[in-house]
Design goal:
Layout: E1 3-6, E2 14-17, E3 30-39, H1 42-48, E4 65-73, E5 85-87, H2 101-105, E6 119-123, E7 128-129, H3 136-139, H4 142-156, E8 164-168, H5 172-183, E9 187-192, H6 195-203, E10 208-211, H7 219-225, E11 231-236, H8 243-249, E12 250-258, H9 271-276, E13 280-283, H10 289-302, E14 308-313, H11 317-326, E15 332-336
Parallel strand pairs: 8-9, 8-11, 9-10, 11-12, 12-13, 14-15
Antiparallel strand pairs: 1-2, 3-4, 3-6, 3-15, 4-5, 5-7
Helix pairs in contact: 4-5, 7-8
Bound molecules: NADP nicotinamide-adenine-dinucleotide phosphate.
The site of NADP nicotinamide-adenine-dinucleotide phosphate has 33 residues, from helix 1, helix 4, helix 5 and strand 9.
Amino acid sequence: MRAVLLERFGLDGLRETRDAPAAREPATGEVRVRMTAASLNYHDLATVLGMANPKMPLPQVPLSDGAGVVEAVGEGVTSLRPGQRVTTSFFPAWQAGAPGLAKLRQVTGETVPGAMQAQLVAPASAFVPAPEHLSDIEAATLPCAALTAWRAVVDEGQVRAGSRVLIQGTGGVSLFALQFAHMLGAETVVISSSDEKLALAESLGASHLINYKAQPRWGRAVREACGGEGVDMVVEVGGAGTLPESLNAVAIGAHISMIGVLTGVASMVPTAKIMAMNVTVRGITVGHREQFEAMNRAIALQGLRPVIGEVFGFAELGKALTTMQAATHTGKLCIDFDR
Ligand SMILES: NC(=O)c1ccc[n+]([C@@H]2O[C@H](COP(=O)([O-])OP(=O)(O)OC[C@H]3O[C@@H](n4cnc5c(N)ncnc54)[C@H](OP(=O)(O)O)[C@@H]3O)[C@@H](O)[C@H]2O)c1
């Protein structure tokens, strides 16, 4: 069958094949899914480059996020039926509750085979039904970026009508966070490197826009945009380089969801500000199946549609990853298996 294999780290270590062994019949508790679409996350780029997990088993089928149609179900499977449209999950073993080592050990496209294959056999619990109003390409954007944003904004950040939320950037996680915050009735500040991308954020409901290239010390500007009080919640995708500025933007008692490492993995942080402002900094690793299902219900009820940046063909994974590396995109980069 058709698949992409990561044979060694680096973009040139990806190989497309039509001769991967055919998918087997699903065993007890498993399903076989015909994959139709996938989407990219920064984590996939880091995985392919060997930065995310240098000890991961190779060869491996890359990409955590995909969508498809259930083709066959094994004995005892009652949660899914043939013909049902589903998505993969980032942490297939994390069904509910607090995170733990065993729940986070399996990562789709890293420690277990990923979405870039024509058929995928896995436990039924590794798949989540897709919202009906979404295309397969749209549904494929949900497992990592959307769920991370949902957990940050809804579960950890406790955003509600009238909350003030700072969203860094206009990538996959950030635009979902903006859409969810807007859905909940929050006031939002989006910072971006580009005025064009800020215009897109405005069209999605962003209340205040700041170009962080033109205004590198944006923390105070964010606070002023929010009536001088600062924001109640931060969607922190920059990490090391942006956290000090986020601490200039927050209100007393704010929550910072520590999601990304785009500006590095360690830095000098003004810890006195965390103390004085009574701030909570919470690390986030995607989310679990129950949160995924709750998010899908909200997405379906609100008719929310993911923002798709660009769609590539199955043979164009390398090109898609290069586009992600260039960071010129907004929203999600996707793969259409029919192209
Ligand atoms: N912890 C988790 O569970 C989890 C889950 C998903 C993603 N992540 C992490 O979150 C980060 C974003 O992932 P993604 O998939 O959304 O990536 P993405 O689609 O590539 O988006 C990245 C965006 O971040 C913005 N950015 C870069 N540097 C910035 C800075 N200095 N200040 C503010 N914004 C900045 C850029 O926005 P502009 O172009 O508008 O400037 C860029 O478009 C990555 O580090 C990824 O590994 C973590």
